[in-house]
Amino acid sequence: MRLLKLLxxxxxxxxxxALVLASRLTARTVITADAIQPAMNFAFVGLRxxxxxxxxxxxxxLSFRLxxxxxxxxxxxxxxxxxxxxxxxxxxxxxxxxxxxxxxxVREDDAVLILSVPKLLRLERPEARAIPLAQLxxxxxxxxxxxxxxVRRVRDVAGLRILTLREGDAVAxxxxxxxxxPWGAPPQVGLGTWVEISGxxxxxxxxxxxxxxxxxxxxxxxxxxxxxxxxxxxxxxxxGRWLSVRARxxxxxxxxxxxxxxxxxxxxxxxDVVIFDDLWNxxxxxxxxxxxxxxxxxxxxxxxxGRLELLPELPTDVQREAx
Length: 323
Fold this sequence. Notes:
Elements lengths: L1 H24 L4 E2 L12 E7 L5 E3 L2 E8 L2 E8 H9 L9 E11 L2 E6 L5 E4 L4 E2 L13 E14 L2 E8 L2 E8 L16 E11 L2 E5 L6 E4 L20 E14 L2 E7 L5 E7 H4 L13 E11 L2 E5 L6 E3 L3
Parallel strand pairs: 1-2, 5-7, 9-10, 12-14, 18-20
Antiparallel strand pairs: 2-6, 3-4, 4-5, 6-7, 6-8, 10-11, 10-13, 11-12, 13-14, 13-15, 16-17, 16-19, 17-18, 19-20, 19-21
């Protein structure tokens, strides 16, 4: 009788182990975010989507948002799983495509997927789609894109390095994590530099931005050959646009806080370029510029007291051609 009991217990344990192994080897049904219901609490499911934001990564803790066509779900992992993902270089980044399997925890309207086995997280870094900076607002959250532009501003805010790029009239921010990033250090770039950067599309206060990983996502470019206006066909409809010109200096008019260059085209039409002192003093030719010199300038077109004027921002926005 004792032997029979042991045999029954062995068969029961064997069946349980077989069921567990079979369940681990069986592909999970992939569900969408909007299909999750309270009755699915503790269900083991699969999710597939993209990463629209930086993950939260701390000692023994990882949390990231997974976005599909119907919504978002938060995925979390702990301790050994996080360390394994770190070690294997598999921390999800914005723009990654993700397939993950785990246990759902559903509380009221909040659903969390708990990743308990590292290999059940599969990442794909798709080829970045090159888009003009002006098309970034139409890109999908989590899409992997590649943009180019001139660096107009660099600032470090709340653990992030933010580069503001401009390409013509379009302006957008590209963001890099500063601390505890598992992908490497952020880039060091100078103002006026032309760059090409790839990353995932994110959003801050309803404005699209590019979320990059590290300096490896940045490629420095030569300054493009701009199509400069041969004359000044500008009118008030162009106010607020970013424009570039190349023309002869007809007048130099100092004013209380800067210098006004009056540029003249071949048809003797003029345009004012207003350069404030903080910028004028940075120009290497500020003390040697002469009437008759040819100048290239770019900036935003503004209207002041009925006159159109171009407003450069950086030293690289105003250049004198060799005599």
